[in-house]
Amino acid sequence: MKVVLFCGGLGTRLAEYSQTLPKAMVEIGYRPILWHLMKYYAHYGITDFILCLGYRGDCIKNYFRHYDECLSNDFVLTRGGRKVALKNRDIDKWSITFADTGLQSNLAQRLRCVEKYLGDDDVFLANYSDGLTDLPLPAYLEYFCRTGKVASFLAVRPSQTFHLVSIDEDGAVQDIRPATESDVWINGGFFAFRREIFSYLRDGEDLVDGALQRLLVDRQLSAYRYRGFWSCMDTFKEKRVFDALYESGRMPWAVWESARQNGHDLPAKPLGWRKSATSSQAAARQDRGAKAAVSESRSRTLSA
Fold first, then answer.
1. Domain residues of the chain, as ranges?
2. How many CA within 13 A on the CB side of residue 290?
3. Model confidence, pTM
4. I want to staple 4 with a disulfide (CB 3.0 to 4.6 A). Which of 92, 126, 138, 269 is the partner?
5. Architecture of domain 2-273
């Protein structure tokens, strides 16, 4: 299984760093947030990455081309520094495709650019590169497979500190509470897709405002509610939260560290996905695709 990582945005809300670095390369400890996200997936056996590059894509390319394993692994230095023996490695088993997808491209355009790199995988994952979670990935993929939908995303509670207000028609406040204690759910940016997602993409439209809206109408979009740890790095304040967690040694997203400390081996390959769908699901999806094509054709005829 492959995972597409969107790491081409400008990151304007993190201006303290984004003037020189893409947001995906802002560091938590010794490593950029992008590395932490890839390490999370690698823990679950998913090591085939497709990076959608844009702003300062050269930084990301150079980082991995000159990757220093010593920064995050134990090693033995001998012969006056001429020999380094690593005790373990991070990225030996990783396959990383670097794809330039445009400086100003939106998510849908970036996704279209890398379709050719997905091979014949029926199911693939996609992710914003500025968010981290401790989500049990096999459970999420099992859920996605069970729904039979074309697309799914992780629904999480907002981590921001603003308050939500309920107001009646006369302007009287009925309720005020932190967003984290509300019944509001937001898109956490961890997507699971079937290949049919590409038939829902349209020129000039973004992923969420375009394709996902059509999937919603066709009842082909699901959300997986998760109440565990999730946070994104949109602002300098959120960057400081990540730094504080790292410095305290409490990094909920570092599931690989938890497994290592507990003496567990790496989990097995995630459940809930397969290279080709069952015949009944495939037939159903082909039928949906045919109906979508007819609907699109009718729409074009009417507009003409």
1. 2-273, 278-304
2. 6
3. 0.82
4. 126
5. Alpha-Beta Complex (3.90)
